[in-house]
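Design job #97: recover the sequence.
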């Protein structure tokens, strides 16, 4: 038993890993919920659909038997071997550990010889039916990923129903009927999973395949998950993408493989004969050595982790979702309706993260500078809208252009951004560096560009080069330099530096009565002047 269990797990693993090797691009792993990527906006999170790994779910199960006193051994009784009514030397005694068969023994590790098993009382009240319900509860939604396998220690029952619940045991639906004669037991035509197709995969069937009585060597009953997967993913489950696509679009199909509870309804023990041997009713009972349920926590594609807390499984939700199945958005993240992640497009799926609520945003998201967020579909990210206090950025974490960061203020301080106050005439633009220094035009200086360098003078439009001064740009012919911006010339002279005779510009010219022109006069300087002025005005 141990070996076969080990082998089947091993086989599953080999199948999965070889699939991964051959179809890396079509096989969605869904094992990461988010990664950091680099965009023009800087580092941002990229969110993906994700799900926990499949595992042995029996470890987390709670079992209930109905009727509660149906386990053998109280009072002690003897039972006979199924195939031989005269071999009645087996004893069940609940008060002796070696002879007791409590329900836990269905879930312990097999491998010991003889195997350990749960056993019911014998059918001593025949013809009153011997009915037993074995209910397995997880108190958590689970998605089955492999066959349910039940191993009977004695013969497989003549009649049995496997039922499931999706609502923690409030309502139950049949999963599969098992009988030696389906028509007689359940008025159903016998079928096997192989008779189904993609279109009838959800049909509830009665199968006679596993109910051939005690004569056969096999003690195992399956509920076939993988055969049903194969209708979509191919016989060797090589095209999981196709299965995931179907699961994504067909809720009924997804729900079919989803459970919170299972119930094994044992309705008639193995008899191996048409007539029950009333002389030897100690031959008839139920005994189960192993139940195997393999699956994953259903986290709606919002978690890769599923942890046990207070004996209960809980998804470790990402994408700002919460709840045992990540089935709703966290408080303050209800900016749009919750929705499960999607397997599509293969292979990363769509995360469908929860986004911050419009009205109730916590201080940390926008540092108190905005009370509104918006979801940017293209980047799959959320940004603060209308940042106040001169902030900007995805989280209002930057200063607007024209402002700089107040080094002595926290990020959530109203005074976090300080106006650059760059002088509009003296600065190249209105931005400053992180110390508040503006970028100045030529001839201008000072942190705010409101001062002039030597040789320049502040006009209404900023610093202009001096027109005259007492060093290089002397006013000529007795003119006086006024505030470095103009020469006040004597009446007979004009020009920027009083370099021209006024009469030269008049219609008649200066005539003969030309003003005295100094021998070394102004002439030599004049050709230089335009170049000099141009250099200053640059
Ligand atoms: C077993 O459960 C079914 C419902 O799933 C119920 O109708 C039936 O009475 C139960 N049988 C016993 C023996 O508790
Ligand atoms: C199922 O889990 C819920 C929430 O943790 C808890 O309140 C409840 O008691 C659990 N039910 C059972 C039957 O354990
Ligand atoms: C909630 O989502 C935002 C982005 O939308 C993310 O930055 C933040 O880390 C998430 N919070 C949690 C607790 O997952
Ligand atoms: C910088 O922030 C501190 C702390 O809020 C504040 O006292 C100070 O006035 C701010 N400086 C300016 C220039 O706004």
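Job complete. Output follows.
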């Amino acid at each position: 038993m141990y070996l076969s269990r080990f082998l089947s797990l091993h086989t599953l693993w080999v199948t999965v890993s070889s699939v991964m090797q051959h179809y890396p691009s079509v096989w969605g792993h869904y094992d990461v919920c988010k990664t950091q990527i680099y965009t023009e906006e800087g580092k941002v999170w990229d969110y993906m659909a994700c799900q926990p790994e499949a595992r042995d779910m029996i470890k987390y199960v709670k079992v209930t038997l109905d009727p509660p006193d149906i386990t053998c051994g109280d009072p002690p009784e003897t039972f006979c071997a199924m195939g031989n009514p005269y071999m009645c030397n087996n004893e069940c005694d609940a008060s002796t550990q070696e002879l007791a068969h409590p329900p836990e023994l269905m879930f312990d590790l097999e491998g010991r010889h003889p195997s350990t098993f749960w056993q019911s009382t014998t059918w001593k009240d025949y013809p009153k039916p011997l009915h037993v319900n074995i209910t397995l509860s997880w108190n958590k939604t689970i998605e089955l990923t492999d066959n349910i396998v039940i191993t009977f220690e004695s013969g497989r029952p003549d009649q049995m129903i496997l039922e499931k619940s999706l609502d923690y045991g409030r309502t139950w639906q049949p999963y599969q009927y098992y009988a030696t004669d389906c028509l007689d037991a359940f008025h159903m035509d016998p079928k096997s999973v192989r008779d189904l197709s993609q279109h009838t995969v959800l049909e509830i069937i009665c199968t006679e395949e596993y109910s051939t009585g005690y004569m056969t060597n096999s003690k195992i009953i399956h509920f076939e998950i993988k055969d049903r997967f194969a209708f979509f993913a191919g016989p060797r489950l090589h095209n999981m993408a196709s299965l995931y696509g179907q699961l994504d679009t067909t809720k009924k199909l997804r729900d079919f493989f989803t459970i919170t509870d299972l119930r094994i309804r044992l309705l008639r023990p193995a008899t191996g004969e048409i007539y029950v041997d009333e002389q030897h009713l100690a031959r008839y009972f139920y005994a189960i050595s192993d139940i195997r349920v393999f699956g994953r926590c259903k986290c709606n594609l919002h978690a890769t982790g599923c942890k046990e807390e207070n004996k209960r499984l809980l998804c470790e939700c990402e994408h700002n979702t919460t709840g045992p199945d990540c089935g709703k958005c966290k408080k303050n993240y209800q900016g749009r309706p919750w929705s499960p992640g999607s397997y599509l497009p293969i292979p990363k799926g769509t995360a469908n993260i929860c986004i911050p609520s419009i009205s109730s945003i916590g201080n940390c998201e926008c540092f108190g500078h905005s009370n509104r967020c918006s979801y940017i579909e293209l980047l799959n990210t959320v940004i603060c809208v209308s940042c106040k206090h001169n902030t900007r950025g995805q989280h209002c974490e930057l200063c607007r252009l024209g402002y700089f960061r107040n080094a002595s203020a926290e990020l959530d301080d109203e005074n976090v951004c300080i106006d650059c106050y760059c002088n509009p005439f003296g600065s190249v633009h209105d931005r400053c560096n992180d110390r508040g220094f503006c970028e100045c035009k030529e001839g201008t200086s000072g942190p705010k560009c409101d001062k002039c360098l030597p040789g320049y003078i502040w006009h209404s439009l900023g610093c202009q080069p001096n027109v005259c001064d007492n060093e290089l740009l002397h006013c000529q012919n007795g003119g006086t330099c006024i505030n470095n911006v103009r020469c006040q010339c004597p009446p007979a002279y004009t020009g920027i530096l009083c370099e021209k005779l006024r009469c030269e510009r008049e219609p008649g010219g200066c005539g003969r009565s030309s003003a005295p022109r100094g021998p070394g006069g102004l002439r030599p300087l004049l050709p230089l002047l335009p170049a000099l002025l141009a250099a200053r005005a640059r």
